[in-house]
Write a structure and sequence with these properties.
It is a single chain. This protein is mainly alpha-helical and 292 residues long. Helix content is 55%, strand content 8%. The protein has nine helices and eight strands. The chain has helices at residues 2-42, 53-83, 145-165, 167-173, 180-187, 189-194, 200-232, 249-258, 262-265, and strands at 103-105, 110-112, 117-119, 124-126, 131-133, 138-140, 282-283, 290-291. Strands 1-2 form a two-stranded antiparallel ribbon. Helix 1 (2-42) packs antiparallel against helix 2 (53-83) and helix 1 packs across helix 7. The model is unreliable at 45-51 (pLDDT under 50).
Amino acid sequence: MTSFASKVFCRVERLCHHLPVVLNTFLVFSITGEVSYLVLVEASLEADQRRTEWSGVWWKAFHLLAQYFMLGNICWNALLFLRTSPSIRGVFLGGEGMGQGWRYCYTCETHTPPRCSHCYDCKVCVLRRDHHCVFFGQCVGFLNYRYFLNCLLFMWSGLLYATLMNAEVFIVILKEGVTVHSVLLLLIPWIMLVSGQVSARAFAFAFIADTCVVGFLLVSAFFFFHLFLLVRGQTTREWYSSRRPYSLGLLGNLRHALGHRWYISWLCPLIPSPVPGDGINFQVTGSLEPTR
């Protein structure tokens, strides 16, 4: 009985671990599908764009290309983020000896370098640990920070684009004025659907439009917060401190976070842009030698 219960618990734990990724994937593709439908079917063209058939084709092609470019970058960055482990597994920590800032992790039973800390969700110490991302179910650290930040960038731009495209949905819902029905449809579309007040089609448009707005506000907060940390050369665990010993200036911080090709690495996650350093030794402000 105990063995059966433990197996069930392990399966539930594994399911909960992957559930955020599954939900995020579903929402991303649902929003993309809905915006594609708006572009291909519902979106109206300007008067000068209606003059020729080709103008409408090019207009739609431009919008589809833009949104699938953002979708491709979101998916590739997310995939590489999940496949790139920033943990100390397989990393030789001996080097030339331990120095200032090293700690001993009693869980991993090893000494860990500066800016490294243990994650109780990942059950391992993470190099230059920023935080554990519950949306991806993995820690953000030294090797995968570039993919995390670029994924946030394209999620932010994609949600901004989707919100603007869904502005017409809000206009259609509110075209008869701000009524109880229209407000409830925007605020609690699920209840309106279950109670039979709206059709499934109206619910889908209202729900995705609401998701775009809420998602845009949430991702904006995360994205601009991490841009702030990037400029300061800090991690989330270090941001509350007034000291910034690892800040190397704007260009130095960009290079150490996004790699040597930081200026073009954001265009595509497949562009090689190796991050300087090894995640163990870090250069301190005002010094030419890394900390040990």
